[in-house]
Amino acid sequence: MSVQIRNLCKTFGSKKVLNNLNITLEDGGIYCLMGPSGMGKTTLLRIIMNLESKDAGEITGIDPDVEISSMFQEDRILPMLSAVANVNMMYEKKRPVKEIKEDLSQILPKKCLRQPVCELSGGMKRRVSLARCMHYQGKMIILDEPFTGLDMATKQEVISYILKNRRNRILLVATHGIEDAALLGAEVIHLENCQELTDEMQAAIPSAQEMEEKLGGEPDGLISSSLKQMLMGAGEMSVGAYMMRHMAETNLKLLDGILESEWENMGSILDGRIQEFEAGKLIWNIGDTCTEFAVVLSGMVAAYTESLKQVESLVAKFGQGRCFGEMLPLSGACSPVKVVAAEDSRILFLSREKLIKYLNSLPTEKDGSKIMFSMQKETAQYLHVSPEALSKELNDMERKGLIRKEENKVQILQPELFALRPDSGIRSIHK
Ligand SMILES: Nc1ncnc2c1ncn2[C@@H]1O[C@H](COP(=O)(O)OP(=O)(O)OP(=O)(O)O)[C@@H](O)[C@H]1O
């Protein structure tokens, strides 16, 4: 059953904060709550959680006392307990420490898991709070500014953790970053669009001109929200580059099931070559045709895409054991990204031809085409649309002249519609 917020009103003294607010949160939906600072995001979340009284209106479809797990703007963790103990407190019947440690090590360095959390950095404490929240069972997860203090790479790890552990619960995240919505595959709820604005509220909202100055051009409302977010988050990234980022987030590995110790051997079986790259050296350039499949044997590589304005944006980082650009050699596509060694790295390149033969000889679920199919399905799920809806949206956009679909790429013809905030995560990182 969906959660319905109807005609909600809240006043503090003489200040109207929420005025006849209406929002519906569908079962299993992912939402980002956005709005100018002071617009009432935290107040709304607190009312949903029954921590703040409302003046009028009703919220149905959720029992706030037992069905909501939440992460507040401040970390509500016990400072003298370890991360593991803080998380294990969420269970009446304690879970094995090993299990909690394994879970936490997805977002925290292993060595800090048994330390009192008061000794951890601000960003680490945020992650302990988040893990506690994710471990509580319920119907809805509420996160208030969960990404403060996290760099882009950590944020991607944390988002991947959230998506993996969400288990189809409603996810409502208050945030200021539009790229967070794209990374989460969330529908954006603009608080100012869901209520009757008083003159005072209206005055607090930046004007279109102020927004334009701040954002460098407002995106148009032509395109459906999930796809628009995908493209905004992706900048002028091709679908291939976007999928690459998605793969980094979801930790998909084509070589899953093959022992790490076997990878170098695969090099000899599959006509592979190992090459060393010093930090900063270019591995793949945009537009290179990929005929080889690359595995990071040691070090770290970073993939960047380039916008029409020549701004480079980090797509994803791939560390030891990760394969990058899996889809590209398999489909024989041109590289939509530039890959650079972020540290001194050893890369194993496998021949595409031999690799495909090898994959075809594997049991059917390891077959290349099936992997490609599941990737598409995953991307559609990640964007929170059905695969049919995804392809329909792309067709509609093509008809409107917004994009041109190529075999493996989507070229954006009107980039101004997808303008990015200059302060979004999509920024010039690499010169
Ligand atoms: N307990 C309170 N008493 C009086 N005023 C309050 C109280 N809580 C919030 N407010 C006011 O209500 C308005 C909305 O605050 P709220 O924290 O919900 O905004 P927000 O959108 O979450 O802001 P931010 O993005 O900066 O976190 C602000 O003007 C704030 O000063």
TrEMBL record:
<dbReference type="InterPro" id="IPR014710">
    <property type="entry name" value="RmlC-like_jellyroll"/>
</dbReference>
<dbReference type="GO" id="GO:0005524">
    <property type="term" value="F:ATP binding"/>
</dbReference>
<dbReference type="InterPro" id="IPR036390">
    <property type="entry name" value="WH_DNA-bd_sf"/>
</dbReference>
<keyword id="KW-0067">ATP-binding</keyword>
<dbReference type="GO" id="GO:0016887">
    <property type="term" value="F:ATP hydrolysis activity"/>
</dbReference>
<keyword id="KW-0238">DNA-binding</keyword>
<dbReference type="InterPro" id="IPR000595">
    <property type="entry name" value="cNMP-bd_dom"/>
</dbReference>
<keyword id="KW-0813">Transport</keyword>
<protein>
    <submittedName>
        <fullName>ABC-type nitrate/sulfonate/bicarbonate transport system, ATPase component</fullName>
    </submittedName>
</protein>
<dbReference type="InterPro" id="IPR017871">
    <property type="entry name" value="ABC_transporter-like_CS"/>
</dbReference>
<dbReference type="InterPro" id="IPR050166">
    <property type="entry name" value="ABC_transporter_ATP-bind"/>
</dbReference>
<feature type="domain" description="ABC transporter">
    <location>
        <begin position="3"/>
        <end position="227"/>
    </location>
</feature>
<dbReference type="InterPro" id="IPR003593">
    <property type="entry name" value="AAA+_ATPase"/>
</dbReference>
<dbReference type="GO" id="GO:0003677">
    <property type="term" value="F:DNA binding"/>
</dbReference>
<dbReference type="InterPro" id="IPR018490">
    <property type="entry name" value="cNMP-bd_dom_sf"/>
</dbReference>
<dbReference type="Pfam" id="PF00005">
    <property type="entry name" value="ABC_tran"/>
</dbReference>
<dbReference type="GO" id="GO:0006355">
    <property type="term" value="P:regulation of DNA-templated transcription"/>
</dbReference>
<dbReference type="InterPro" id="IPR003439">
    <property type="entry name" value="ABC_transporter-like_ATP-bd"/>
</dbReference>
<feature type="domain" description="Cyclic nucleotide-binding">
    <location>
        <begin position="254"/>
        <end position="359"/>
    </location>
</feature>
<dbReference type="Pfam" id="PF00027">
    <property type="entry name" value="cNMP_binding"/>
</dbReference>
<dbReference type="InterPro" id="IPR027417">
    <property type="entry name" value="P-loop_NTPase"/>
</dbReference>
<keyword id="KW-0547">Nucleotide-binding</keyword>
